[in-house]
Every structure is written in C-alpha cells, then in structure tokens.
Amino acid sequence: MSTVTSDAQTVKETTAENSAVWSTGWSDVLYASVWLVFLLFPVSNVLSAPVSDGLKALGLTGLGVFAVLYVISWIYEVPFPRRSELVNALFWCLILLLPLALVVPAAGLTGTYVAPFFVAVCAFRLSMKGAIIAAAVIAVIAITPWLIMYPPQQWFWPLVGISPAFMLLLVSRWVMERSMVREELQRELKLAQQRESVGRDVHDILGHSLTVVSMKVQLAKRLMATDPERAAQELDDVLVLTRDSLTDVRSTVGKLREPELSVQLVQARAALRSAGITPHLPSTVPTIAPPWRATFAWILREAVTNAVRHSSASACWVTLTSTTLTITDDGAGLSGERRGADAAASSVSGNGLRGMRERAERAGLRLTVTSPVDGKDRGTRIVVEPA
What we know:
By secondary structure, this protein is an alpha+beta fold. The protein is built from 14 helices and five strands. The chain has a five-stranded mixed beta sheet with strand order 1-2-3-5-4, covered by helices on one side. The radius of gyration is 36 Å and the shape is rod-shaped.
C-alpha cells in the first residue's frame, strides 16, 4: 500500500513540475515582449556614448542577450517548481544581471534604465505586497548610484526614466489582481447558484416521489387482506416510481436533462389518484417554448406534491395553454393548510412555493397564488403566465 501511495505521489509531483515549467501561455509571452520597446532608450545611449566601436558593439550585444533572456524568463517562468515564487523570481533577476556587465562599459549608469524589466519579472510573479516591496528595492538599487555620483540637477532624467514605468507596472499588476478576484467571486457566485438550484431540484423530486410512495405503501397495506392483487400492483408502482425518482435525482445532480411536461402530467394523475383526489388533467400538451415547458413541468410537480400533502382536497384541475399553466384544488387553502400541518410540513410547503416562484422568475414568468378561490373559503389556485 505504501508503495502504491509513493508511486502516485511521485507521478503527481512529476506532473506538477512539467506543468509548472511551461505554465505561461504564449499570449503572456507576447504581452511581456511588447515591453522590450523600452530597450530603445539604453540602445540609444549606447550608440551615442563617447566610447570605441568595440565597446558599443559589446553593449549592444549585452542588450540583445538581455532581451533574449527576458523573453525566455516568461517562457520558462518557473525553473524550480519545488521552490517558492520568490526564489524563482530572484533567480531570473540574477540571470538578467549577467548581460548588463557588457552594457556598463559603454552606457555607464544608463544601464539602470532596464530596471523596469526586473520589476516586471517580480511584479507579475509575486503577491501584490511582494511586488510593491520588490519594486521599492529595485528602485533604490537603480537610483542610488545616480544620487551618489551625480549632482542633484542631473537626477531629473533618471527619475523620469524609471519612476513612471514602475508605476505603470504596479498599476497593471493591481488591475490584474482585481480582475482575478472578480473572476473568482463570479465563479463562487455561479457555483452557489448551481448548488441552490440542484438543492431545490432534488427537494422537488424527492418531495413529490416520497409523498406518492408513502400514499401507495399505506394503500397497499390496507389492501393486503382484502385485495392482494391490487396491493401487489400498488407495490409495483412504488418500485417503478422509486427507480424513476433515482434516475431523476441522478440527472438533476448531473444537470443532464429537465423533466418532461407530458411525463409530469402522467405522474401527477397517478399521485392525485393515490391520494384520493380526483384529477382533471389535459390529455395532450400544447406547443410550449422549451424554457417555459421545463419550468411548467417543475411547477406542476411541486404544486401537485403540495396538494397531495397538505390540501385535503377532493379534486384538482390543471389547465395548460401555450403560455399559461393553472393548477386549482378545492382543498383547505393556504391558511387551513398552515393550521392543519405541523411546523415541518408548513416549512416544506413554504419552501415549495418559494421555489416555484423563483423558477418562474428565472424563466421570465410570473407566478400568482390565490387562496381561497372564486369567493369561497376554500381552495388554492396557482397561475403561471408571462411576466
């Protein structure tokens, strides 16, 4: 067992190393390469320096090598995957210092104009706090020689040449971090919405199915002595229903499909009959837009479940058009439902109504609940129609 675990860990570490080596996309490399245009300033200083052509060639070679190494630092961003980000950034900073030894004889302190490239290497690979500290350290290293070796009246151009680039890089880093935080929050919000949706779907499926199962089992128990064949048929229905419910739960959790309205009508008729409620349901389904069709199916399922559980109704009517779903029962109504049910049942019914309303709103529909109906003191009517 330990050998298998060790081998798996080795494979995992090897994979992490390989992915870390080439972790930066080519778009990032091209973006980083754009900054090489700022090498024109040290190149110009090398060419205009009062030194021999040999030293100028040496300086230009150093800048060319610097440019190549800078691009490679973005391709091979993490040469030491087992080490921290700081260690990898410092490694590339040290590597980039080497070709500058060829530039200093020709350009002198103007070689410090490449300091923003070192800031870029650190800023986009460390945390925001680390980027600010690195930028401050690099700024001190780059500017201090100018402050020591030149009079104050010659400090202007080094400061102007380095400070704006530093600020631009840090602002870019901050914007990038804000963008990453915003994307992460959006992903978390989407995940929370998906979890809420799946929870509501599972509640609707299991609430409906378990209610029907309970009714059928109770009926089968009463019929065992007087009508064994009918009892066996009811138990067969329970078996089919539990299998269908399991399939629905799996499909809902996997977001593989939405319930079919025609199937829900068949199941609603069976559920109402099992509860002793006379169903008055349409035999056919009109043409309905797909998003509304799925929403009608979910709301029909939940409304029938509530009627079976809490309404004490004797009949239930369902009317379907291409744009409207209406479910009406002659039960006790919402107020009577609340008085007759215990706290848990009331909570379930309230969650069901809230879930139906949320589904309707997401589909651009409006759900209206009326209780009692038609001027009577009983009954509940649920109407779903375009908002």
